[in-house]
Amino acid sequence: MIEITGLTKTYGSGNKTVNALNGVDLQINSGMFGLLGPNGAGKTTLMRILSGIVNPSGGSIRVNGHDLTTEAGKHAVKSMLGYLPQELGMYTELTAEQFVDYMAILKGLDDSRKRSQRVAEVLEMVGLREVAKRKIKGFSGGMKRRVGIAQALVNDPKMLIVDEPTAGLDPEERIRFRNLLVNLAADRVVLLSTHIVEDIGQTCRDLAVLAKGKILFRGSPAEMLKATEGHVWTLTMSGLEKPNHDLTVVSMLHLAEGTQYRLVGANVNGYTNAQPTQPGLEDGYVWLMKSTGQVVIES
Questions:
Q1: Within its chain, how far is the Cα of 270 from the centroid?
Q2: I want to staple 94 with a disulfide (CB 3.0 to 4.6 A). Which of 99, 116, 183, 189 is the partner?
C-alpha cells in the first residue's frame, strides 16, 4: 500500500519558485493504478519521489509502512521497487541479455547462477527471449521499452512504476505493452503515469488526475464517465460555421452534408440539432479539465 498525505515539492528559491506538487493526498492499493494528467502536471516529480530519487519539500509518503522521507525508508522501498523512467539511458552496444544482467548486478543480485536464471525469466516475460543476444542499438522503440520493463522486473519488485511507457510507440506495440502491464499487476502494485487517456481506460480500474500539482479527481473510469453525462454532444454544421467557444471540440469528421463535431461543454444552448452522446473517457478527461478551470483544447 502507498499512502501519500499533504505531499509538496517546490523547486527554486525566493521569488523564482515552482510548486510541482501542492498538497497531494493519495492512497494506492495493489493492482493497476493510473495517474493521468497533462505534460507538466507533476506526474514525473511524484514518480521520482516514490522511487526515492527526489526528496519531497513537505508532507508524508509511506510504502508498505516505510517512511520515504527517511534514508532507512528509502533503502527499504528501493529493495522492493522496479522503475521505468520516461527516458531510460541504455548502453546500446550491449545485448538485451547483457544490459539486464548489468542492471541486476547494480540491484544486488550477486549470485551469478541465480542472476542468469532471473535475467532469462524476465526477458521471456517481456517477449524478448528470441532476441536476447542481439544488440539493443538494433531494437525498435517498443522493444527498447520492453528491455526497460525487463530491467525493472529483474529484482522481482512488489511495486512497479512506469512513467509514460507508451509515448511514441506504434499501435501494435502500445497494445502489447498495455497487456504486459495488466498481467504484471496480478501480484504487485503497478503505477502507470501517462498523458494518454486511452492507456488508462484500457488498463486501470482505479485512477487519479493530476494537474498543476493538485489532484483533480480520484476514482474509477466509470465514475469519471458518470460525472460527464449530459455534457457531450454531436453537432453537424455546414459551410464555415464553427461551434461557439464555450464548447470544446474533441473530434471532427467531414461529411457530405457538413462537419460533424463531438463537443464537450456545460450546455449547447442555441444548437437545436445537437444530439446528446454517451461520453467516453477522453470526453470525461476534457470535461474534468474544463469544469475545474484548467487549460483544454482550443475550440
A1: 38
A2: 99
Statement to judge: residues 164 and 140 lie in one domain: no
> Are 240 and 105 contained in the same domain?
no
- Cα separation, 98 vs 200, in Å, equals 32
* pLDDT for residue 299: 43
Residue 89 resides in a domain: no
Give residue for cell 543476444.
133
> Per-residue confidence at 295, pLDDT binned at 50, 70, 90?
low
Pairing of strands 232-237, 275-276: antiparallel
Q: What is the pLDDT of residues 23-71, one digit of tens each?
A: 999 999 889 999 999 888 999 999 999 998 999 999 999 999 999 989 9
Task: Over range 112-118, report the average pLDDT.
Answer: 95
Q: What is the rounded average pLDDT for all residues in the chain? A: 91
Say whether both 106 and 210 belong to one domain: no
State the Cα–Cα distance between residues 103 and 147, nearest whole angstrom.
11
